[in-house]
């Protein structure tokens, strides 16, 4: 099987001298209830540190203060104000939905509205609770005009695909992906190792990087923010999504050389240095 390697990092471009925040894209994250505010902070913080120009987090207001003290670059929106979220959604390049979201009827409505609203120039990243929120309304995925990136772990993929973990072969995964989603969809199925599936091409590549030092809650939430940051500034393609997932696990491997565990917050802090090293 083909493997992702460091040549993929060529998508990390030197910033043009005459650029400004608008050059590097706008991200809206819909994440975090009162219990899982950390997931929302890690996802939005990772997005800023990966280089997104402007990031807004729609979250439970109980997360606002900690967000501002950890990541003051991130703007906020109340999760309960659907009208404001939908108004903002039409203006951004990337919408990421799911980390730390509560499973509720209102969030089911919101995710459906966002999937129906987004156009073909936009990308929607679905992670974590998004898969449970879609379980009863999977058909909204297939008709989405936006580019899609799905980042479930095996249990979340089971919820969406109805495939037991033992049934999650590459052939089955590609078949279900084709059945459930539009062609412009990538599935990054997280595990050890993780695999990136391309629905249009019906192909799969393996991510060889990653380490058990990454097995800490919030590691996937952080990945969601990195993918959002990469797509916002570099665009949507197989190489760009692959370079985001490779950056996440390659950086973790580097940090694990002299650390027993690598925390999501360490990855976030080291992203700017890592990307500077690989820019071209
Ligand atoms: N600090 C925070 O606020 C955190 C919030 N989180 C949020 O918590 C919510 C629930 O996410 P969870 O993933 O914990 O819960 P889920 O209930 O969705 O799935 C957890 C189950 O899947 C299993 N699992 C996960 N990866 C697996 C793998 N590779 N192989 C086998 N089994 C695997 C776990 O052991 C567990 O039984 C999400 O919204 C998530 O974003 C978590 O990301 C943890 C950190
Ligand atoms: N043993 C491991 N080897 C390689 N990668 C791992 C390992 N354990 C965890 N990871 C990585 O950490 C991330 C975990 O994501 P996820 O389960 O969504 O975490 P969370 O929901 O807590 O944020 C994935 O990118 C996964 O590949
Ligand atoms: Mg997760």
UniProtKB/TrEMBL annotation:
<dbReference type="Pfam" id="PF01256">
    <property type="entry name" value="Carb_kinase"/>
</dbReference>
<feature type="binding site">
    <location>
        <position position="153"/>
    </location>
    <ligand>
        <name>(6S)-NADPHX</name>
    </ligand>
</feature>
<keyword id="KW-0456">Lyase</keyword>
<dbReference type="InterPro" id="IPR000631">
    <property type="entry name" value="CARKD"/>
</dbReference>
<feature type="domain" description="YjeF C-terminal">
    <location>
        <begin position="4"/>
        <end position="278"/>
    </location>
</feature>
<feature type="binding site">
    <location>
        <position position="221"/>
    </location>
    <ligand>
        <name>(6S)-NADPHX</name>
    </ligand>
</feature>
<keyword id="KW-0520">NAD</keyword>
<keyword id="KW-0067">ATP-binding</keyword>
<dbReference type="InterPro" id="IPR029056">
    <property type="entry name" value="Ribokinase-like"/>
</dbReference>
<feature type="binding site">
    <location>
        <position position="39"/>
    </location>
    <ligand>
        <name>(6S)-NADPHX</name>
    </ligand>
</feature>
<keyword id="KW-0547">Nucleotide-binding</keyword>
<protein>
    <recommendedName>
        <fullName>ADP-dependent (S)-NAD(P)H-hydrate dehydratase</fullName>
        <ecNumber>4.2.1.136</ecNumber>
    </recommendedName>
</protein>
<keyword id="KW-0521">NADP</keyword>
<dbReference type="InterPro" id="IPR017953">
    <property type="entry name" value="Carbohydrate_kinase_pred_CS"/>
</dbReference>
<feature type="binding site">
    <location>
        <position position="220"/>
    </location>
    <ligand>
        <name>AMP</name>
    </ligand>
</feature>
<comment type="similarity">
    <text>Belongs to the NnrD/CARKD family.</text>
</comment>
<feature type="binding site">
    <location>
        <begin position="190"/>
        <end position="194"/>
    </location>
    <ligand>
        <name>AMP</name>
    </ligand>
</feature>
<feature type="binding site">
    <location>
        <position position="100"/>
    </location>
    <ligand>
        <name>(6S)-NADPHX</name>
    </ligand>
</feature>
<comment type="subunit">
    <text>Homotetramer.</text>
</comment>
<comment type="function">
    <text>Catalyzes the dehydration of the S-form of NAD(P)HX at the expense of ADP, which is converted to AMP. Together with NAD(P)HX epimerase, which catalyzes the epimerization of the S- and R-forms, the enzyme allows the repair of both epimers of NAD(P)HX, a damaged form of NAD(P)H that is a result of enzymatic or heat-dependent hydration.</text>
</comment>
């Amino acid at each position: 099987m083909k493997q992702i390697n460091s040549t993929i990092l060529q998508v990390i471009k030197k910033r043009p001298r005459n650029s400004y925040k608008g050059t590097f894209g706008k991200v809206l994250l819909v994440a975090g209830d009162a219990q899982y505010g950390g997931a929302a902070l890690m996802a939005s913080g990772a997005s800023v540190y990966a280089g997104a120009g402007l990031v807004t987090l729609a979250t439970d207001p109980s997360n606002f203060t900690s967000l501002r003290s950890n990541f003051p670059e991130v703007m906020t929106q109340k999760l309960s104000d659907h009208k404001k979220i939908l108004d903002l959604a039409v203006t951004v390049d990337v919408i990421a939905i799911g980390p730390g979201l509560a499973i509720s009827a209102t969030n089911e409505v919101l995710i459906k509205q966002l999937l129906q609203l987004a156009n073909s120039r936009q990308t929607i990243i679905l992670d974590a609770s998004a898969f449970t929120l879609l379980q009863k309304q999977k058909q909204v995925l297939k008709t989405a005009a936006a580019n899609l990136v799905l980042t479930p772990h095996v249990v979340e993929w089971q919820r969406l695909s109805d495939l037991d973990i033992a049934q999650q072969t590459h052939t089955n995964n590609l078949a279900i992906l084709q059945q459930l989603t539009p062609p412009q969809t990538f599935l990054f199925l997280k595990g050890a190792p993780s695999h990136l599936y391309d629905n249009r091409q019906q192909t799969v590549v393996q991510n060889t990087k990653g380490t058990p030092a990454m097995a800490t809650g919030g590691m996937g939430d952080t990945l969601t923010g990195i993918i959002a940051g990469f797509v916002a500034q570099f665009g949507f393609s197989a190489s760009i999504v692959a370079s985001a997932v490779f950056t996440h696990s390659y950086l973790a491997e580097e940090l694990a050389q002299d650390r027993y565990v690598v925390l999501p917050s360490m990855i976030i802090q080291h992203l700017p240095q890592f990307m500077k090293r690989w820019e071209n």
